[in-house]
Amino acid sequence: MTPNESISACSLRHRRAVRVIESFLLLMLAISIPLVVPIAARAEGAPNPLCAGCHMEDGNSVTPDFPKIAGLDAAYISKQIMDFKKFKRVSEIMGPMATQISDSEIDALAMYYSKQKRTPGVVTDKNLAEQGQLIYTDGIVNSAVPACSGCHGEKGEGTDKFPRLAGQHTAYLNTQMSNFKNIVRNNDARGVMRAITLRMTDQEMKAASEYIASLKGE
After folding, report:
1. pLDDT tens for each residue of 52-67
2. Is 209 exposed, middle or buried (0-12, 13-18, 19+ CB in 10 A)?
3. Do 71 and 217 form a contact (C-beta atoms < 8 A)?
4. Is there a contact between 165 and 193 (Cβ–Cβ < 8 Å)?
């Protein structure tokens, strides 16, 4: 290695070290600052930064593991936040987050996100989505699995009790079905989703997720 190359390598390592330190300091700063900004301190109609950080301001998360909450029924959103807050729905991320949201703010947040328009979903496997369409519209007769459309609507539009599914991230959908199946998640009414997913294979759940992502909800 020539002297110039040696200097260049040292400089590169120095810049990388600086970036690591800067990232660490920013993380520590973020942790030290209260995440929940009171409604009165924000512009009218603006979402709480705590929610927007993962779900985005319009409720359309760009990260497949974080759900799109835009267009969900307000009552459904409120219930999920309260379930996280009371640890009726377990999540290492949402549990601590929900405890920082005051009860008085939950309904306002839910109403805000319910009015946002959901972006279209992304189908990654068209063949799997075609299999999923049969499950969503007709169910799986041999396994006594009812049609998803029976509760979530033909277009995935959902209700106040059953969430809007249309356009949701396939990764998130599949994770939630697996959580129901393995009883990691158990805040479904009367255990309906736990009973249904218990009779589904992993492949069938993936197929249903792919088809759901293609739905428009309208």
Report:
1. 999 999 999 999 999 9
2. buried
3. yes
4. no
Considering the entire predicted model, what is its pTM? 0.80
Q: What is the pLDDT of residues 5-47, one digit of tens each?
A: 444 444 545 555 445 454 444 334 333 444 444 443 444 466 7
One-letter amino acid for residue 56 of the chain: M
Integer Cα distance of 134 and 84 in angstroms: 33
- C-alpha–C-alpha distance, residues 47 and 50, integer Å: 8
Q: Which residues, 6 or more positions from 169, have their beta carbon under 8 angstroms from its beta carbon? A: 61, 63, 64, 65, 66, 67, 68, 121, 122, 213
For the CA atoms of 112, 177, 196, 134, the dihedral, rounded to the nearest 10 degrees, stands at 90
